[in-house]
Design a protein that fits this description.
This protein is mainly α. It is built from 17 helices and two strands. The protein has a single domain, classed as ABC transporter involved in vitamin B12 uptake, BtuC.
Length: 392
């Protein structure tokens, strides 16, 4: 048997452990230098984008679908939470709840009254929060089923273009149709975290981290199940899937429904954290291209790699925002404001990772159906039997 020290040393040398330790040291430094508020803010964004990117990885990394419309499911979750739960509470307590609810002149008066109700009723606040997540998940599942229709028939390039267009379409509908989520002025979201108002940031951070853990475990269970192995077979060879009698249309539809439901929950969590739902904020850059960047840098098909990819880029972005002026303030002499260097420097981080880790921070690992120890035992047994068989 191996020495315990050797086992610990081997685990510590794993890439994911090293990256996690480095990020922990950076977060500790930020906490000491700037306080815990920036840590909680970073962890909240990390949790939300990890949930969205894990859903994308399920569809792209494990199923092989060209999903360039991740923003659609995120919008579905955000718009449903912005449009329905607050109206239901307003209706129950005799407040304006119709089309006028989203009017800024009415909404900014109604939502504070709902906040007072939630502050005094812990059970109602928790129920409201869970209702928002369930409603978002159902709306995301519906959107996943709808987007699976073109995904069945269109090739990769046409599917990607179609999903990008659908995402922009829904965003502009929300931006221009005021009764949905306030149009250009946005709509306020009743805050279920009012029950811990003095510690809201901490409560949101820990709640979102807990939901991220549950989503990660759920996707890990799916991808390691027979269904998950079917997804990978479909990704690697659709022809083999057909030969083995797999219903490709059904499998892709199921993957899109599950992934979109999870992404919609991420969108719901974002608007609950922000306190408002602004349609114009759900752009393809933030909610499609950035999740793609997180996934590719973390490792396509690797769940832990995706989470670490989001963590590395989120922490890197925080560092860039904090230190861009102090490090690049001299550029003002040439008329360049360092405040605009955020995406340039983040792009350099992405290029650096791609150059030295072309398959991502933690590439997808080949998995066997049986444990390695059992496979080794079977091979040893076969060799032993073959050596004992007399030659003719």
């Amino acid at each position: 048997m191996r020495n315990i020290g050797d086992v610990i040393k081997q685990n510590l040398m794993k890439r994911e452990v090293i990256i996690s330790l480095v990020m922990l040291l950076v977060l500790t430094y930020l906490a000491i230098s700037y306080g815990f508020s920036i840590i909680f803010s970073t962890l909240i964004l990390f949790s939300i984008f990890s949930i969205v990117t894990l859903s994308l990885n399920l569809e792209v990394g494990h199923t092989g679908i060209s999903q360039f419309g991740r923003v659609i499911a995120v919008i579905a979750g955000a718009f449903v939470v912005g449009a329905i739960p607050g109206r239901i509470l307003a209706f129950l307590y005799g407040l304006p709840f119709g089309l006028e609810y989203a009017d800024d002149a009415v909404n900014y008066k109604v939502v504070p009254l709902i906040h007072k109700i939630l502050e005094e009723n812990v059970a109602l606040a928790l129920g409201f929060f869970l209702f928002c997540l369930v409603l978002a998940g159902l709306s995301g599942a519906l959107i996943g089923w709808l987007t699976s229709r073109p995904a069945i028939r269109l090739r990769e390039a046409y599917l990607g273009i179609s999903l990008l267009a659908f995402g922009d379409f829904f965003m502009w509908v929300g931006h221009n149709w005021e009764p949905l989520v306030g149009g250009t002025t946005a709509v306020f979201i009743p805050d279920p975290f009012r029950i811990v108002w003095g510690y809201r940031m901490q409560a949101v951070a820990f709640t979102l981290l807990a939901i991220l853990v549950l989503v990660y475990l759920f996707i890990e269970r799916i991808t390691k199940s027979p269904f998950g192995r079917t997804l990978k077979m479909l990704r690697d060879s659709p022809l083999v899937s057909r030969v083995y009698g797999k219903n490709i249309v059904k499998i892709r539809t199921q993957s899109l429904i599950i992934g979109s439901a999870i992404a919609a929950i991420g969108g719901a969590l974002y608007v609950i954290y922000a306190g408002t739902c602004t349609a114009i904020g759900f752009t393809r850059l933030t909610w499609t291209f950035w999740p793609w960047a997180y996934m590719m840098l973390g490792g396509i098909g690797s769940n832990i790699g995706v989470v670490l990819g989001v963590l590395v880029l989120t922490v890197s972005r925080t560092l860039i925002v904090l230190y861009r002026k102090s490090l690049f303030g001299f550029l003002l002499l040439w008329g360049i404001d360092p405040i605009w260097l955020e995406f340039t420097l983040l792009g350099l981080v992405i290029i650096f990772i791609v150059l030295f880790m072309p398959y991502g921070l933690v590439p997808e690992k080949a998995e066997t159906l049986l444990p390695s120890g059992r496979i080794k035992g079977i091979l040893d047994s076969v060799r032993k039997q073959s050596s004992q068989t007399p030659e003719n």
